[in-house]
Amino acid sequence: MASSLFFCRIPLQSNSNSNIFYSNSNSNSSYYYSKPIHVRCSAAVHSSKTVSVAEPEPVFNSVKAFAPATVANLGPGFDFLGCAVDGVGDFVTLRVDPDVHPGEIFISDISGAGEKLTKNPLWNCAGIAALSVMKMLHVRSVGLCLSLEKGLPLGSGLGSSAASAAAAAVAVNELFGGKLSVSELVTAGLDSESKVSGYHADNVAPAIMGGFVLIRSYDPLELIPLKFPHEKDLFFVLVNPEFEAPTKEMRAALPPEITMSHHVWNCSQAGALVASVLQGDLMGLGKALSSDKIVEPIRAPLIPGMEAVKAAALEAGAFGCTISGAGPTAVAVTDDEERGREIGERMVEAFFKAGDLKALAMVKSLDRVGARLVHSTPR
Amino acid sequence: MASSLFFCRIPLQSNSNSNIFYSNSNSNSSYYYSKPIHVRCSAAVHSSKTVSVAEPEPVFNSVKAFAPATVANLGPGFDFLGCAVDGVGDFVTLRVDPDVHPGEIFISDISGAGEKLTKNPLWNCAGIAALSVMKMLHVRSVGLCLSLEKGLPLGSGLGSSAASAAAAAVAVNELFGGKLSVSELVTAGLDSESKVSGYHADNVAPAIMGGFVLIRSYDPLELIPLKFPHEKDLFFVLVNPEFEAPTKEMRAALPPEITMSHHVWNCSQAGALVASVLQGDLMGLGKALSSDKIVEPIRAPLIPGMEAVKAAALEAGAFGCTISGAGPTAVAVTDDEERGREIGERMVEAFFKAGDLKALAMVKSLDRVGARLVHSTPR
C-alpha cells in the first residue's frame, strides 16, 4: 500500500515557511501540522517530483503504553515548566479492532480513578489525543479499541488528563511504527489538553518526554528539555488532600497584572530554578520552588491548610515546597527517600490539623523517560 | 601587628543568624557585613576563646587592577542577569601613600573617558567601592592614592560605573592580601552602584566575577555564576551610538505593572536564556536575547534607530540582538569574530540611516575571568 511513495515529513520545530499553520476544527486551538497535501520537498528531492504522504500500517496487533504523573508550574515556573514523576500514572491499551469504523476510536472501558470520565472519544482526553495522532499519521483504514487505566486521581494537580493523553498518543504512534517525533506527540497531547483542561503543555510535554521540560513557545511549539544530572537523586513528596480544588476559581483568582518588582523577582527565581535543575543543585532547586511571589500566595489560601503544609515540609527538612499544578496536591523535594516519607507524614498531619483535610502522601523519584510502551503483541 | 589574633570570617552567603545585617551610613542601601566585633567562633574554635578581627597590612606598595565592561539585562534577564565582555574596561592603580590621611582615599587623576567624573572619593564610583573595601578590611592605619583610567564611555549601557567600582574593589583587596570573598567584593561594588547609578548588581557582579551571573537575591546577596562552556566561542557585537540615553526617562518609561501573559512569556524566555547559556546553545541564547516583550519594546523607541539596528543585526546573521543595559549601546551575539565585524558594520549603517546617529562598533568575546590584578609592586 502506498509504500513506494515518498514520505515527506515537514519538521515541526523549524521556523521555515514550509510549516503550515493548521487550524484544528475540533477545538478553538490551533497547531502546527504536517498538512496531508502533495508538496515539493525541494530540500530532500532535487528533481521536481511530486510526493505524497503514505498511510502507515499497524506493526502491532495491540500495545500498552504508560505515561507518568507530572508536576507543573513548580513555583516560579508558572505556565511554562513541568516535570515527570516516576511510578504513578495512566495506562492505555490499544488494539486493532475490525469492528471499529476505520479511522475511528472506540473506548471500551475506563478503570481506576476515572469513573467520571466520558467514553466519547471526542471528549475523552485519551480519545482526543489518540484521534489527533491518527490524523497526523493519516490512518484512514484501521479502527482502534482503547482501554484506559487511570492510576491518577482526577483534578489532583498531578497532570491526570495529560497522562491519559500522553499514553494514548504514544500508544497510537507505537502501534503504527513510531513514525512521529516527540514534538508531534506533544502537539497531539496539547490538542487534548486544550479541549479538556486548557491550552498548556507544561503537563503533557514532560508526561511524553520525561524529566524537566521548559515550554519556550507555542507558535511554533518549542520545548527545551532540562537534564537533571543522572548521578543525583531527586525525590518528590506528593501529598494529595481530599479536597476538590476549584479549578476555575484557581485560575480566576490570578491577577491580570503583576508589579514590575514581583515580575523581576519571579523571573530571577525562574532562572535560578532552571540553573539549579541543570546543575543538579537540589538546595537551589528547592529554594526556587518555594519562592513564587505571584501565583502561590493567591492560590495557597484557597486550599485549606496549604500554608501550614508548606511550613511543615520545610521544617521537616524538605529543600522546598509549593502547590503542584493548580492544586490541591502539595509537592516538596528532597534527595533522600526515607526523609521524604518523614516529610510526607508531617505534611499529612498539617493538612489534617490546619486544613481539617485527610491526605495521602507518596514519595516518587524523577521520571527521566516519559511515556513509553510497556507491552506489545505482534501482528 | 595583631597578627596573633584569630581572624574570624563569617560567611556572607549563609542564612545563619551569625550574619549581621549592617546598615551602611554612607548610603540608603544596606548590606551583609562581617561586623568588626569580638565574637565567639563556636564552629571553628571549640574552647571559648574570645577572638578579634585584625587590621591587615598591605602586601604590595602599589597594584593595578582591570575590570571589564558588562552587558546587563540581556533582554528577558532584566534587572537580574548580566555578563562580562573581554578586552574593554577600566583600570585602577592604587598605591600606599603616607601623605594620605590613614584610612582614607585620595583620587589623584582620572584619564580616558572620565573627564566628567568627580575626584571626591565619597561620590566617585571607584572611590566609594575602594572605601567600602577598606572598611570591610578594617584598614585604619594606611592611606591610599588612586588613579582611574576610564576605558569605557560614561552612560553607554556597558557598565562604566560598575567597571570602575569593580577594579577599585579588587585593587584594594589585592593590596591587602586578597582576604575578601567574591560576594564581599560585589557587596562593596553594589555599595558604589547604589550611590551612583542604582541598587543593581547585574553589572558589578559580572564585572567582578566574569562570565554570566544571575542575581538571585539581594537580602541576603545571592549570586549564581552561569558557566558558558569553555569549548564554545561567543562574541558580542557592541554598537555605541553618539547619543545620550536619558537614563531617568529610560527607567521612568517602564510600566509599573505587567500583564500576566507578558510575565509568563518573559519568564519562560529568561529560563530559556539561562538554559542556553549553561548548555552553550548560541542560537537559543540569541533567540532569548531578542525575545523581551516588556522592557525593550518601551525603551527601543527612545533610542533613535534602535529597531532598525536590531533588524539589521538579525539580517546580517546575528543570533540575537537587544539593548545593552539601559542603552544606548546595542548588543548582538554571534559565534564568529569576522561575522561579528560584518554585523557591526550593518548595525552602524542602520544607526546612521534610521536614527541619524554616528556609532562605533566593536566585537568582543565573553570575559570569563572578571576583575583582576594586572600589575603589582612588592613592598
From TrEMBL, chains A, B:
| SUPFAM superfamilies per UniProt | GHMP Kinase, C-terminal domain (SSF55060), Ribosomal protein S5 domain 2-like (SSF54211)
What this protein catalyses is:
L-homoserine + ATP = O-phospho-L-homoserine + ADP + H(+)
Q: Name one GO molecular function term.
A: ATP binding
Q: Which GO terms describe its biological process?
A: threonine biosynthetic process
- PROSITE patterns named among the record's database cross-references: GHMP_KINASES_ATP
Record domain GHMP kinase N-terminal: where? 135-211
UniProt keyword annotations, A-Z: Amino-acid biosynthesis, ATP-binding, Kinase, Nucleotide-binding, Threonine biosynthesis, Transferase
**UniProt xrefs under Gene3D superfamilies:** 3.30.230.10, GHMP kinase, C-terminal domain (3.30.70.890)
| Residues of the GHMP kinase C-terminal domain | 275-351
Would I find Hydrolase among this entry's keywords?
Answer: no
Question: Which protein family is named in the record?
Answer: Belongs to the GHMP kinase family. Homoserine kinase subfamily.
Q: State the name under which the record lists this protein.
A: Homoserine kinase
In its UniProt entry, the species of origin is given as Cinchona calisaya
Lineage, top ranks: Eukaryota, Viridiplantae, Streptophyta, Embryophyta, Tracheophyta
